[in-house]
Write a structure and sequence with these properties.
Blueprint (H helix, E strand, L loop, with lengths): L1 H6 L8 H14 L9 H35 L2 H5 L2 H10 L13 H10 L2 H26 L4 E2 L10 H19 L4 E2 L1
Helix pairs in contact: 2-3, 3-7
């Protein structure tokens, strides 16, 4: 059962098909009681595979978090806030560092993956830039309540002429918004 529970977290990983086929063969052949135990090596292999995958996801999250945190700490507006304001924004936007994830035993690994599976770690990592950007915008809003947030138009630029046209469009947009007050990008 433990192997089956762990394997459902490994579906997106390359060796899953081979492991699942071996587990199915054990069930079909009713060799659970065979000696030597046919399940233990598969369980160990699944645990190692999932532990490595989880470690990679945690490292990617930590790298992204560190990069975003460094950028935020270098932001002039963020540094103008008091420690209490920064702490409040950090809590509100869930910018706390990654807590330790225990995965030493198969049970701990199972619990860690049940709490946040591999795909969810990808989602969490991809969400980091927007969470940090939201905190930065909130900091600007605290310092300059009348700030106007402007989203720049998105384009694929193919040549110099398109670049110049986009720059002219952005300049006109920003000049119009500056009439309303300070502008944040």
């Amino acid at each position: 059962r433990k192997l089956g529970d762990l394997l459902r977290h490994a579906k997106a990983l390359g060796p899953y098909v081979k492991l699942k086929a071996e587990v199915d063969a054990i069930e079909v052949q009713r060799s659970l009681q065979a000696d030597p135990d046919p399940v233990r090596p598969l369980l160990d292999e699944a645990v190692d595979l999932l532990r490595q995958a989880l470690k990679a996801k945690l490292e990617a999250f930590q790298k992204g978090f560190t990069q975003q945190q460094t950028q935020l700490q270098q932001d002039a507006d963020w540094n103008k806030l008091s420690s209490a304001q920064r702490d409040e924004l950090t809590a509100r936007h869930h910018l706390e560092p990654l807590p330790a994830v225990a995965a030493g035993t198969p049970e701990q690994l199972q619990d860690a993956l049940d709490e946040c599976n591999l795909d969810q770690w990808i989602d969490k990592t991809q969400a980091l830039p927007s969470r940090f950007e939201a905190a930065r915008h909130a900091a600007v809003q605290l310092l300059k309540p009348n700030v106007v947030h402007v989203a720049l138009p998105k384009r694929t630029l193919n040549d110099e002429a398109e670049l110049q046209a986009w720059l002219a469009e952005v300049q006109a947009l920003l000049q119009a918004k500056l009439q309303q007050g300070p502008v944040a990008l």
